[in-house]
Structures are given as structure tokens and as C-alpha cells.
Write a structure and sequence with these properties.
Elements lengths: L1 E7 L5 E12 L2 E13 L2 H10 L7 H26 L4 E14 L2 E8 L2 H8 L3 E3 L3 H5 L9 H7 L7 E6 L2 E9 L2 E9 L2 H10 L11 H4 L5 H8 L19 H11 L5 H22 L4 E5 L6 H10 L4 E4 L10 H14 L7 H4 L9 E3 L17 E6 L2
Parallel strand pairs: 1-4, 3-13, 4-6, 7-10, 10-11
Antiparallel strand pairs: 1-2, 2-3, 4-5, 6-12, 7-8, 8-9
Helix pairs in contact: 1-2, 2-3, 6-10, 8-9, 8-10, 10-11
Amino acid sequence: MRVLGMISGTSHDGIDTAIVDFGADGDRLHGRIVHTGSHPYPTGLRSRLAAALPPAETTLSEVCELDTLIGQTFASAAAEAILASGDVDLIVSHGQTVYHWVEGGHAHGTLQIGQPAWIAERTGAPVLSDVRIRDITAGGHGAPLVSYMDTLLLAGVDGVPAALNLGGIANISIPRGAGDVTAYDIGPANALIDAAVVRHGGHPAGFDEDGRIAASGTVDEALLAVLLADAYYRLPAPKSTGKEHFHIGYVDQAVATAGSQIGFADLVATLTELTIRTVADDVRAAGVTKLLVSGGGAHNPVIMDGLRSALTGTEVASSDTLGAPADDKEAIAFALIGWCTAHGLPGSNPAGTGARSARILGTLTPGAGPLTLPTPLTRAPRSLVLEPGK
């Protein structure tokens, strides 16, 4: 079964795509990655999206228009991937998260926009969307959903392995054996760094390329202490967070509390150190011996070198070593969720999200023809092997 997974993450810079050809062999699932790509948002659309995100106020008319425009952009990304690599049996669209409602330590709702009917109309393929909410209705956080794939990928890896994703938010999955996993959002990875860069115009694309800005600055210890004092870091797992909490206004308040007169480069250096410190503290506390990193932060040498320096007893490597390209891992994870749903299998790990039990995820939009699903499977895979396509 060929499944196209698509996601725009908390950095909202564009849409990652991955087509995976899945085949089950007993307890093992094989995934041949036949396409990966990235489809940037048009500059105007990205600006409109950023302007509508919390803590900014917006209108229902703007949400409606963004839902359409983002859905059309996802449709273009899907058509582009299919043109490059051939037809698919199913498309999974994560869409764009615009709000993740967490209150009192519990997730109560989540909103992803990017109308899937535009994708189905453009491609003729059925589309699975709205994949997080079912886990939340079962008492979970709806995140990190990638922990399901992480558990399968890390099966059989020696020691205490963990998968770390450094997107806008840092999340980690630490398998504990027999399908058990500890998984949660650690805190900001690139979210605050990107917010500062956008505010100060430090890079046209809105991020610290190769960590150059951070490398030119000095960490402000007083500001770092204020940032580290956030109560979120001491909440027990499972837990989730997002840009509703970690945004530029949050940075401004922290700077004011610290009483810092801080320059741009020093601010970026301090926010980068916050990511390093919070991730390293949790990895060390969990006794992780091998850390496999994905996401945009995996390309930031200041973050990666900082993690290696702080984690001398831990091997820090790219998720590529397990066949999951660092830039495409989340798109592959949503393709896997689609395969699970199509075969009547849960695509979440309740030990990682906090749900009462696993759920079959998503809402299906039919394509050009009748909606026909494979014969349901009675047993879920216990491991996943990914390999590049030929």
C-alpha cells in the first residue's frame, strides 16, 4: 500500500511530504520510501498564518480563508509528490496546527486547518485528516503521535535508545519494552529562536541558519535562569505544549523579569542554550544511551554540539541511521498512521500520549471513486524497517 504523508509543523515554513510503500511480513512492517520532498508556503500565506496564531487575535473569516488557502497548498504539495513518484492509495494530511488547547495539565482540544477536500479533489485519492483529536477524546494529549513509529523503529536497538525531534517544539520518545514508551513534549526547540529571528529580521527564512547567530552571541545567565524556571519543565509526562505557550511575547516577559539589556545575538544564544539545557537534562535523567535526532534542529551545529558536550555518556546521532531521514521523519510517521487506519489498526501509543487506550485515528474524505479499504488486520506490527526506494 502506497501512502503519502504530509505535515506542516510548528515552524509553519512549509509542507514536508513522504510517499512510503508499506508491506507487512508477520510482526514486521517494511516501508520503502519512494519519495520525500518539501513544498514551501507562499510568503504571503506564511505571513498571514503567523499573524493569526496565538497570542494574536483573529476572526472566523480569517480562519475560514486560511483553511481554504492552506488546503489548496497541501493539494499542490500532494500533486507535486504524485507527479514525481506515481499514484498513491491514500494521502494523510496532518494539516497546520493553529491551536492546541492544554489546561490544567490536560489536552482538551486541538485544531489543525487545511481543508482535506481540496486535496481529494485535486488528486482523486482518499485523504485521512484530523488525526490528533481521537486520542484527545480518549484522555490523551494527541501528541507526540510520532512515538508510535519511534517505538517500532527502535525495537531491538541495544541499551536505552530514544528518538528526539527538534522542530518548533522538542519531543522525545523513550521505549521501555513490550510496547511501553515514555513520550512527551520537552519544551521549545526552535520555536523561540525562530520567533526572535523573525522579530529582528535576522534571516530571510526566519531561522538561525547553521546556528550562526547563536554562535556569535553569549548566553545571558540571568535570562536563562528565568526561562528555566517555567513550571512546564517540572510537569510529569505525558504532557504537550506549543506556540500557545512559547511565543515572542513569552520571550519579552522573560527579558523584562530578568531585567536584561540584551542584544539580538545574545538573545538567540540564550534561547538556543535553553533548548540544549532542557533536552539534555531530560535525556540524562532517563539514562538514555543512544539519542537519534530528527527535525530542523538536527541541522543546527550549536544545538547538536551542545547536546554532545552535555551528554558525554550518550551517543548522539541522526535518525538517518535507522532509515528515517531527519528532515522527513514526521511525514513518514503520518504515512504510517494512515496505513494503520486503513487496516483497522490503532496508530497511537497510549503510554506515550496518556490516552486510556489506543485508538484508530483520523477522518476519511473519499477521493474520486468509492472508498475501499483493505481487509482489516487483527495483529499490529511489532517493528518497522525503513529503506530508501529504488
